[in-house]
Amino acid sequence: MYTDFNLEHIPKVLCDRISTWFRTLWRTFADN
Description:
Blueprint: H1 2-31
């Protein structure tokens, strides 16, 4: 059960992390 929770939780966290990182990166390029 703990493993199942991780398998479903990690991709969501990674997706949010990448989304935030990508927006920051895009904003940096857009400003320059």
